[in-house]
Amino acid sequence: MQTSEAAKYSAGPFQAVIDKCEGCERIVEEDSVSYCKTYVNPASRWRLGICNFATHAKPEIKVVKVRINPLKAAKRASSSRRS
After folding, report:
1. Max Cα–Cα distance, the chain, nearest Å
2. Whether residue 51 has pLDDT greater than 80
3. Domain boundaries, the chain
4. Is the distance from CB of 25 to CB of 56 less than 8 angstroms?
5. How many CB atoms lie within 10 A of CB 62?
């Protein structure tokens, strides 16, 4: 990374990353302070859950088991056999 490109992080409005950002590939370190390349305020991205640009964390996918009425299932199965 060039020095002129990295200089904008400490001189600009960029805020330091939070502990949830540790391990992300988008972190840039300058003057022993870590900044996010993508967001000015990384803490705001974690307020509602997982950051959508986090490379180190994957969202949890919840599988919902749907209960099917056995009578309706039997009717659906028998109607598909007739066609």
Report:
1. 74
2. yes
3. 3-82
4. yes
5. 5
